[in-house]
Design goal:
- By secondary structure, this protein is an all-beta fold.
- It is built from no helices and eleven strands.
- The radius of gyration is 14 Å and the shape is globular.
Amino acid sequence: QVQLVESGGGLVQAGGSLRLSCAGSGIIFGINVLGWYRQAPGKQRELVASITIIGRTNYADSVKGRFTISRDNAKNTVYLQMNSLKPEDTAVYYCNVPRSTRDLREYWGQGTQVTVSS
């Protein structure tokens, strides 16, 4: 059974930093694309960042230059370093493993709340 468990969320003042972690079990992170999404109240879930198997990264325009996604395959963990946080970054952040040619299922974590106060 695949489980993705996020941690590291919390309350931070604008301009502060947080580091989110997502640990996987029942799945090998090293052979999968990994991503972070977020969903703010009343808004659709949106892609924040993704990282390929070879480490290529992609970011939403709204977080470029402030957020960094990284992976540690040995620990089966993906991270999201969030700097210069803004109130508009407030959302529930979700870890994601998208469908692939090897596995047509998509996997999500339970989410971790990030709240940025002004």
